[in-house]
């Protein structure tokens, strides 16, 4: 089966490579000629464990191709996936300009029945706009070529995207014709053979499922962060509370870990977009507004604990603060909406010197904020002569460091753990002043 995927960002490149791994012949399309040339050489522009090897292998075996022109491959494909970006607009709603650009290109180039599948996260009702854009281009051509529009939202976790694609919890496909359903069933047949769930819905429901799923997960995170903050005030231990409610089968234990806020390319953007979608319909998403408010406040919690430790901002000027972790989560270099960016800004505004280390996101940090901070060569270099260390991203290599070396290296052994990965009693034995989230 032959398909094309427009957009070689995170979703497009991972999806295209994984489809190729399943035996599909895939053409990945992007207008960025420099990126396409790099991909042809096996140079992957994003950090995702295992992706480099898969790209190289599937190119070598002839199933994965890269091009700058959809028109060049359109005659050979049955399905075109749209996986371009939908960045938040100024008001928080999803910017659909790139999605509609793909639709117009599709309408200008198809010569036979083809399905355009939106894989980008888009608001409910986008499929209607996509269909209209295609129809307008066909009318300009004076053609009546049959086509279908479908929705196939992605549920990939950065850092585990390949596993998520190859062994998904479910695949959601929104269609409004039997012909599109048959074609998409054929494409996902390998998943059906392995008893994975492929859920067919109408298109608006498929569009809503992605937003509802991410918003529910964001809600659980913000709820637990609110509970953690209250635990500190009343003397409860959030770890015990989390275990106590997580064993309830109606609740479950996933996404009940408190911390210093969520970030990334999905949760913040999708929560904002769903709020805006509701506003356009005259409905107030009061729960999600609270979720967003709690998350923004939580990103300052680690800084607030540091201020309390020093006895006020006026005592922080000139202090050297080390940061472990810049990416919004482990196993990625993505710093979009990362807590580290908020923390760094607050530290610099308070007159602190900041020294950072992250196993993957150092280049991304330099691209975003330049030389505003110092860049360490490793995790131990980061804490050398530091007045405090802030742990913001729970990379595996941070979980069991040599605390003896760290205590001797720091000017004062103070650790503020924004992800609750360390044991308070163990830290006390090491002679470290330790602060975490949700424990008195």
Structure write-up:
By secondary structure, the protein is an alpha/beta fold. 44% of the residues lie in helices and 14% in strands. A 6-stranded parallel sheet has the order 3-2-1-4-5-6, with helices on both faces. The model has no long low-confidence stretch (mean pLDDT 94).
What's the structural blueprint in terms of helices and strands?
Layout: E1 2-6, H1 10-21, E2 25-29, H2 33-40, H3 51-60, E3 64-67, E4 79-82, H4 97-109, E5 114-118, H5 126-141, E6 147-151, H6 161-166, E7 170-174, H7 178-187, H8 189-193, E8 197-201, H9 203-234, H10 238-246, H11 267-280, H12 286-298, H13 301-310, E9 320-324, H14 339-349, E10 353-357, H15 362-369, E11 374-375, H16 379-382, E12 388-391, H17 403-409, E13 414-417, H18 424-429, E14 433-435
Parallel strand pairs: 1-2, 1-4, 2-3, 4-5, 5-6, 7-8, 9-10, 9-12, 10-11, 12-13, 13-14
Helix pairs in contact: 1-3, 4-5, 9-11, 9-12, 11-12
Structural descriptors:
single chain; 440 residues; alpha/beta; Rossmann fold; six-stranded parallel β-sheet; 18 helices; 44% helix; elongated
Concise overview:
This protein is α/β, with parallel strands linked by helices. The protein is 44% helix and 14% strand.
Q: Assign the CATH class of the largest domain.
A: Alpha Beta
Averaged pLDDT:
94
CATH fold title of the largest domain: Rossmann fold
Range of strand content: 5-15%
Low-confidence stretches: none
Query: Separation of termini?
Result: 58 Å
Task: Return the CATH architecture of the largest domain.
Answer: 3-Layer(aba) Sandwich
CATH superfamily of the largest domain: NAD(P)-binding Rossmann-like Domain
* Percent range of helical residues: 40-55%
Tally of individual helices: 18
Number of strands: 14
Structure classification: alpha/beta
What would you report as the Rg, rounded to the nearest angstrom?
Answer: 24 Å
Order of strands in the sheet with most strands: 3-2-1-4-5-6
The major pleated sheet works out as: 6 strands, parallel
């Amino acid at each position: 089966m032959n398909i094309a995927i427009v957009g070689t960002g995170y979703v497009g490149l991972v999806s295209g490579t994984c489809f190729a791994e399943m035996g599909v012949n895939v053409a990945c399309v992007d207008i960025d000629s420099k990126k396409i040339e790099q991909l042809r050489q096996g140079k992957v522009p994003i950090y995702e464990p295992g992706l480099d090897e898969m790209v190289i292998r599937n190119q070598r075996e002839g199933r994965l191709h890269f091009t700058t022109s959809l028109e060049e491959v359109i005659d050979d494909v049955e399905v075109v996936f749209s996986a371009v970006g939908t960045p938040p607009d100024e008001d928080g709603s999803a910017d659909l300009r790139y999605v509609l650009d793909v639709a117009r290109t599709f309408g200008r180039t198809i010569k036979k029945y083809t399905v355009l599948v939106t894989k980008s996260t888009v608001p409910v009702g986008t499929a209607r706009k996509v269909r209209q854009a295609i129809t307008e281009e066909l009318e300009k051509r004076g053609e009546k070529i049959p086509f279908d529009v479908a929705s196939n939202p992605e549920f990939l976790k950065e850092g585990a995207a390949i596993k998520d694609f190859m062994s998904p919890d479910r695949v959601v496909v929104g269609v409004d014709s039997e012909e599109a359903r048959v074609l998409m069933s054929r494409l996902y047949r390998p998943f059906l053979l392995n008893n994975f769930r492929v859920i067919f819905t109408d298109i608006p429901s498929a569009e809503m499922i992605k937003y509802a799923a991410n918003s529910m997960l964001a809600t659980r995170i913000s709820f637990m962060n609110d509970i953690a903050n209250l635990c500190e005030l009343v003397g409860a231990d959030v770890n015990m509370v989390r275990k106590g409610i997580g064993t309830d089968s109606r609740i479950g234990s996933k996404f009940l870990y408190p911390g210093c806020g969520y970030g990334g390319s999905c949760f913040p953007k999708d929560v904002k977009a769903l709020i805006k979608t509701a506003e356009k319909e005259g409905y107030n998403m009061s729960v999600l507004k609270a979720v967003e408010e709690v998350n923004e406040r939580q990103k300052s919690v680690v800084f607030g604990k540091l201020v309390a430790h020093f006895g006020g901002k006026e005592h922080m000027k000139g202090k050297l603060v080390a940061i472990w972790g810049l990416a919004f989560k482990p196993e990625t270099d993505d710093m979009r909406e990362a807590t580290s960016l908020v923390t760094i800004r607050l530290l610099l505004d308070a007159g602190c010197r900041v020294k950072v280390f992250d196993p993957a996101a150092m280049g991304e940090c330099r691209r975003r904020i330049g030389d505003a901070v110092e860049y360490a060569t490793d995790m131990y270099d980061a804490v050398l002569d530091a007045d405090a260390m802030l742990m913001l991203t729970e990379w595996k290599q941070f979980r069991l460091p040599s605390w003896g070396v760290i205590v001797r290296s720091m000017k004062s052994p103070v650790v503020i753990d924004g992800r609750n990965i360390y044991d308070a009693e163990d830290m006390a034995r090491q002679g470290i002043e330790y602060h975490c989230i949700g424990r008195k």
